[in-house]
Amino acid sequence: MDEHAVPQEPAFGTRAVHSGREHPDGLRPVVPPIHASVSYMAEDPDDLRAVLAGEKEGFVYSRNGNPTVEALRRCIADLEEAGDAVVFGSGMAAMHAALLAALLSSPNRSVVASSHLYGVTISLLNNVLAPLGVKVTYADLTDTSEAREAIERERPAVVLCETVSNPLLRLVDVPALAEVSHASGALLFVDNTFATPLLTRPLEHGADLVIHSTTKYLGGHGDVVGGAVAGPWDICGQARAMSVFCGGVAGPYEAWLTLRGIRTLGLRVPKQCSNAMVIAHALETHPKVSRVNYPGLPSHPQHDLARRLMKGGFGGMVSFELKENTVEAANRFMHGLRLCLPATSLGDVYTLVLHPVNSSHLTMSPEARERVGITPGLLRLSAGVEDDTDIVADLTQALDLV
């Protein structure tokens, strides 16, 4: 065998670079173009009808489909090793469409959701779905025993969790959760934004649908908002219908920027994981820090589970609690940053620091935050790709002000 031959199944980094580059019109540009047209012509009116009816592939109107958006769809399905994918205008649009599609097709309008979720996801469940008659039950799904009890009791349509939770970085045992969900007739939906398909692919562990805010690691440069779901054809088909009916579709410019970001995913994420590990070790020994949450640390209560589920790194996210556990101390720290940026997103090439009480989980009541461990002095950090010594130096000088 030729030692220089291209392997039959390209590695993840290669697929990230090349997926979505197919061109049905026969053109072969190195960089796929942006198709900005809203509508598309056909010689035969029957072709338009057939495309709109789903009987034939093609494009008619960009809310229904667009070639650039289609390229991103194929790319994400490839990276998650899914049968299909759908892309959206934001991560919350993806979450909304996925949940709505599953609930409308089930006689059991109920969700068992992790108590460790992004604050706006909780707001979607409480303020949008619950008033429509959806029963929402929260449980600590990072505790497999508690998860089993809640799922077997409620027998919901959907079980919803995050691979790595925001912002406390707790993990769910996806294979165990998939087993108990399916035994109770539920679908398991996993938000894989923090982990990315590079580090773990929940579908391989039994999940039914993966959800992403592509704004984060997939886009990777803080310049585009988007979302996606990936899974089997039937569930994705239902989510696609929700995107068409409700209008939360991705635009071609946003799809193109996300595709461009994905090309370097295999380079960025390993560096972010490496930086996060250095940062976590530095913070763990700092006298102004009382605890550090990072799955790569042996002190993390689910370190062994992280080693089993996450391949190639433990992620680029770190959270930590100040010893002076107050909003005032957190504000002094944030004001003291010089290199790291106080901003509300994550997964960028820049190192970003966020205060969950005042941002990502602002919509939760103080009592609800306290129940899940989101304290006044908790800070969340998204490691960028800068030199790790510069990041640590900036964090250290900011901590001196606390």
User: How much beta, percentage-wise?
Assistant: 5-15%
Quaternary state of the chains: single chain
The residue-averaged pLDDT reads 93
CATH topology of the largest domain: Aspartate Aminotransferase, domain 2
Number of helices: 15
CATH class of the largest domain: Alpha Beta
Tally the structural domains.
Answer: 2
Strand arrangement in the largest pleated sheet:
1-7-6-5-4-2-3
Q: Measured on Cα atoms, how large is the radius of gyration?
A: 21 Å
Helix-strand category: alpha/beta
Per CATH, the architecture of the largest domain is: 3-Layer(aba) Sandwich
CATH homologous superfamily annotation of the largest domain: Type I PLP-dependent aspartate aminotransferase-like (Major domain)
Number of strands: 12
Report the principal-axis shape: globular
User: Helix coverage percent of residues?
Assistant: 25-40%
Cα end-to-end separation: 61 Å
Helix-strand sequence: HHHEHEHEHEHEHEEHHHEHEHEEHEH
Largest sheet: 7 strands, mixed
Low-confidence stretches: none
Give an account of the 3D structure.
The chain is α/β, with parallel strands linked by helices and 402 residues long. The chain has 2 domains: 12-262, 3-Layer(aba) Sandwich (Aspartate Aminotransferase, domain 2), CATH 3.40.640.10; 265-399, Aspartate Aminotransferase, domain 1 (Alpha-Beta Complex), CATH 3.90.1150.10. The protein has 15 helices and 12 strands. It has helices spanning 12-18, 45-52, 67-79, 91-104, 119-129, 144-154, 174-183, 196-199, 233-246, 252-262, 265-284, 303-309, 327-336, 366-372, 388-399; strands at 84-88, 110-114, 135-139, 158-162, 187-191, 209-212, 227-231, 289-293, 317-322, 341-342, 352-354, 378-382. The chain has a 7-stranded mixed beta sheet with strand order 1-7-6-5-4-2-3, sandwiched between helices. Strands 8-9-12-11-10 form a 5-stranded mixed beta sheet, with helices on one face. Helix 7 (174-183) links the parallel strand 4 and strand 5. Helix 4 (91-104) packs across helix 9 (233-246), helix 6 (144-154) packs parallel to helix 7 and helix 11 (265-284) packs parallel to helix 15. The protein is globular.
